[in-house]
Amino acid sequence: MRIVAAFLKIDDAKKIKNVLNQNGYDDILVCNSAYQVIAAANESDGGIVLCGYRLTDMHYSELYGYLPRDFRMLLIASAPKLDECSQGDIMCLSIPFKTHELIDTLELMRIEWDRTFKRLKKAGPKRRSSREQTVIDNAKELLMERNHLSEEQAHRYIQKLSMDSGNSLVETARMILAFE
């Protein structure tokens, strides 16, 4: 699990990194821009972003919208700024804080992350055979040609039919091809 410490002042991020290092956390990236956070997150298998209210190029809420789904955020800011935080899935920690509060909060987030994402990654996505993928692709091509849809629209249409009918994507694609 990757930890990214991102604060407007790079020295603040380095202080957080040092505290975390002293408490057993070692995979910590320090940065001060959302661009760096997003790049690091996209190269990682998930983790936690500890960040301040603003970075050099983005507000925390904008950054949160760009994070991959396997990343969580811990917003560290003053109490008035935390009152403005409207996203319920962002964990918040008010400054000033005690070291044990940071470590306890981070540990709680790590446990939640482990439960959620390790289980999903262990199971892994179900792989389709090349034959099944061909059936889906043929159904998309048919919809694109017949109904003048883009590939994305055709795929969404098949997904929606699949969800509405309770059938798999492949079964739904076969039904579409059967009515050709």
Please sum up the structure shown:
The chain is an alpha/beta fold and 180 residues long.
Tell me what you see in this structure.
It contains eight helices and five strands, in the order E-H-E-H-E-H-E-H-E-H-H-H-H. It is an alpha/beta fold and 180 residues long. A five-stranded parallel β-sheet has the order 2-1-3-4-5, sandwiched between helices. Helix 7 (151-165) crosses helix 8 (169-178).
Radius of gyration: 22 Å
- Percentage beta strand: 5-15%
pLDDT averaged residue by residue: 87
Task: Look at the helices and sheets and give the structural class.
Answer: alpha/beta
Order of strands in the sheet with most strands: 2-1-3-4-5
The number of helical segments is: 8
List low-pLDDT spans: none
Overall strand count: 5
Run of helices and strands: EHEHEHEHEHHHH
Largest sheet: 5 strands, parallel
Helix content: 55-70%
Q: Which word captures the global form?
A: elongated
Kindly report how far apart the N and C termini lie.
Answer: 48 Å
Keywords for this entry:
single chain; 57% helix; five-stranded parallel sheet; alpha/beta; elongated; 180 residues
